[in-house]
Amino acid sequence: MSSGDVLDDVAALVAERNRIDALLTRRVRAAELSQAPERDGQKSMRPWLRGHCRLSAAAAARLVGNGQVLDHLPALAEAHDAGLVSAEQVAVAAVALTPERLAAAAEHGVDLAEVDAVLTQVAIDHPHADFVAAVRHHLTRLDPDGPEPDPTEGRRLMLARHADGTLSLRGELDAVGGEKLQAALESFVQADRPAGDERTRAQRLGDALVQLCDTALAAGSLPVLRTVKPHVAVVIDLEDLADPATGREAGRMGFGAVISAARARWLACDGTVSRVVFGPDGAPLDLGREQRLADRHLRRAVELRDGGCVFTGCDAPTWWAEVHHLVHWLDGGKTNLANSALLCERHHTKVHHGFRVERQPDGRWRTWRPDGTEIRTGPPLLQPAA
């Protein structure tokens, strides 16, 4: 193919992707408005898309948010349908369409149809940066004087975990909140300046943030999380812990990161080591020296076995979940591991209103709707429903 043919193909494929994104966004919006996710025990399309379509939290949120944009900006929606506007551009427009900003537009007499026309023209004819600037200009019109905002409205922190367990941070703080963080971090930075230190400023701040967390966790004054004090947890096989080799990807941490056996041994130097014996079905059989299964010990066993909410399609982590009796204790169910399941608050309520979860002999969990049909998370359909 000639260079021109290749470039034409690229442009055509981008336009086709835009059209498919528009169709998908409209279907997601229709499902959201009809409360379709309730069929599978989910509150909204965001968790359904994560659990059933394997989307990231950010991708699911953007799809749902874009559907709301198409409702309010029909011209932009039409351009998206035609492949002239991308899903990314629609997502940029979403920041101007929060309930608060829609109310401000109505209060200031802003004609959304005019805004829609202008933004659509810029999106089609100008570079992406110009479109971002046009949306920002619209927001400035809604609040030209800039009254003193609630500081909590300007605070946000996003944590993105990568495949290797590392964590990226991105966020914003108001002036006072930022001052508090800087004051806390700077105290560690200035107190830890050994001779010959070649760390960059960014590295020293990163170390200070970790030290700040160490200090807060060690103080023991943080709020209790699901009956357990916040702590750093690592699950590792005894053989890997005892083996002096590095043992990469041998330990699994409480929030999902995977670390080497060497790093786990380093953490164990000033931590508590608890023995948990697993049976052939992957269920904990023994929790070390405890004489009986008290609440916190049972919870630890259920967390180790289940790893999060067991309701099909749910990705809620252990710290959002509650321990559920498969057979209610009023009906003779025992408070033990075999009769327990980890469920997030929403799905704990669902299984008390007709839904049912059951652990199979091979350790897998399955979920049934009140009508007896099973909830499955198979591969996405090749052809969209008519």
UniProtKB/TrEMBL annotation:
Q: Which Gene3D superfamilies match?
A: 1.10.30.50
Q: Which GO terms describe its molecular function?
A: endonuclease activity; nucleic acid binding; zinc ion binding
Q: Where would I find the HNH nuclease domain in this sequence?
A: 297-349
Q: Which UniProt keywords apply?
A: Endonuclease, Hydrolase, Nuclease
Task: Report TM segments.
Answer: none
Regarding protein family, the annotation reads:
Belongs to the Rv1128c/1148c/1588c/1702c/1945/3466 family.
Q: What is the protein's given name?
A: HNH endonuclease
Q: Which organism is it from?
A: Geodermatophilus dictyosporus
